[in-house]
Each structure stands twice: as structure tokens, then as C-alpha cells.
Write a structure and sequence with these properties.
The chain is 11% helix and 31% strand. By secondary structure, the protein is mainly β. The chain has one domain: 3-methyladenine DNA Glycosylase, Chain A (Roll). The structure holds a DNA duplex. This is Putative 3-methyladenine DNA glycosylase.
Length: 204
DNA sequence: CCGGTGATTGTCT
DNA sequence: GACAATCACCGGC
């Protein structure tokens, strides 16, 4: 159930429970579509519907950071329990994943795009763009819009400040190959990218 | 310690 | 379509 916080002028949606994250990674990647991803900071709440995801299933996935069970400081959280946040820096941007697969199985779902629902004004401030479509239509854009940083590495997504909540049920889901992993052999052909059919915030 | 690499984005041609 | 920005991570020496 949602709880109203009368000290602030918005309603914080209730996070999903732990069991939600314990489904197989490819199913979780689909189930996350339509859910709310939100972050609460001093500046307020910012969040939106997840409209695009990608699954990464180490150790057999050459495109995954955890390929061959590679366990390093960066990938460590992927070996932890499902429902933790795996954030990492890509060039000048921070990207966010949902850890899945359970303890010892380094799998994750990358959040590639969301559709603004809460704090759109705040997102405009953070992004410095005036077109709403540019706010969250990419994995690096959405983290900046929501205020997600490396500070969120390893945080549980079942409670604020960074959490996932039930949203809408997508009418139709499309699948395809993942983006930006050209140098990963046959893994580049796996149909492990999912998006809400026709949603304008899906990355191009 | 040093150099290559990358699950991206914005800008310029 | 090409490319720079900019940096943490990672492997090799």
C-alpha cells in the first residue's frame, strides 16, 4: 500500500517485496517493464515507469561484466542477493542494474529507459534539457535525471531512497538484441533486450 | 605503475 | 555517421 507523507507534497509508492526479485533473470527483465524506478533525495522524489531493460547472465554471457564468473571490486555486488543495485561508470555516465540470479549467480538487469512519472521538473533541472523526451530515454540519461550515482552501489531496491514499485502492466512487450555490445561474439545475438512496444521513451 | 577498454551521450559534419 | 569527453576498472609488467 502507498503511504502518504504529509511533510512532503508527494506520495511515495510502496516498494515491491524481496520475492519479486527472485524470479529467473529473463522473466525479471520482462516483469520490470511497467514498474516504477524511483529515487528520493533532499530535492524530492524522481521516478518513472521502466520501459526498456536488458538481461546480463554471467558466467556464460560474454557481454556481461561477470563473464566466466569474473569477480572483482566492480562485479562483487552481482554475486550478492537479488534486488541489490549494481551501479557502475560508463565513460562519463553512471548506469544502473538490478541484481538477480540469487547469491553466487552473477546476473543482472540493466535499466535502459524510463518514462517520467514523479519529479519531472526536478529531472529537467538535473538534465538541463527542455524536451521531455530527452530526459530519461537512455541508461545514462535516466540515472542523471533520477539522481542515481555510485553512492547507490549495493543498495537494496526494496526500500527508499532507491527503490522499485509496482506500476502499470504493459499492453505488449517487444524483444531484440542488446545495444552496444558488438565485441562479444555470439552473445551479441541473444534476444535479451526487452521494451514496452511503441513507448516513445525507449532508447534509439 | 601504465595503457587499453567501454552495457553512453552530445556535438559537429 | 564520426568522434571526443573522461574515468573507473582491470590486466600486465
Amino acid at each position: 500500500m502507498s503511504q502518504e507523507n504529509t511533510k512532503k507534497n508527494y506520495i511515495i509508492p510502496a516498494p515491491v517485496n524481496q520475492e519479486f526479485f527472485e524470479q529467473p533473470t529473463l522473466l525479471l527483465a520482462r516483469s520490470l517493464l511497467g514498474c516504477i524506478l524511483a529515487k528520493e533525495t533532499r530535492d524530492g522524489l524522481a521516478g518513472g515507469y521502466i520501459v526498456e531493460t536488458e538481461a546480463y547472465i554471467g558466467p556464460g554471457d560474454k557481454a556481461a561484466h561477470s563473464y566466466l564468473n569474473r569477480r572483482t571490486k566492480r562485479t562483487e555486488v552481482m554475486f550478492g542477493e537479488s534486488g541489490l543495485a549494481y551501479t557502475y561508470v560508463m565513460h562519463t555516465h553512471c548506469l544502473v542494474n538490478v541484481v538477480s540470479g540469487g547469491i553466487g549467480k552473477p546476473e543482472a538487469v540493466l535499466i535502459r529507459a524510463v518514462e517520467p512519472v514523479y519529479g519531472e521538473g526536478l529531472m529537467h533541472e538535473r538534465r538541463g534539457v527542455d524536451q521531455t523526451i530527452k530526459l530519461t530515454s537512455g541508461p545514462g540519461k535516466l540515472t542523471k535525471a533520477l539522481g542515481i550515482t555510485m553512492e547507490d552501489y549495493g543498495r537494496r531496491l526494496t526500500e527508499p531512497p532507491l527503490f522499485i514499485a509496482k506500476g502499470i502492466g504493459p499492453e505488449s512487450i517487444s524483444t531484440g538484441t542488446r545495444i552496444g555490445i558488438g565485441n562479444s561474439g555470439e552473445a551479441k545475438d541473444y534476444p535479451w533486450r526487452f521494451w514496452i512496444t511503441g513507448n516513445p521513451f525507449v532508447s534509439k
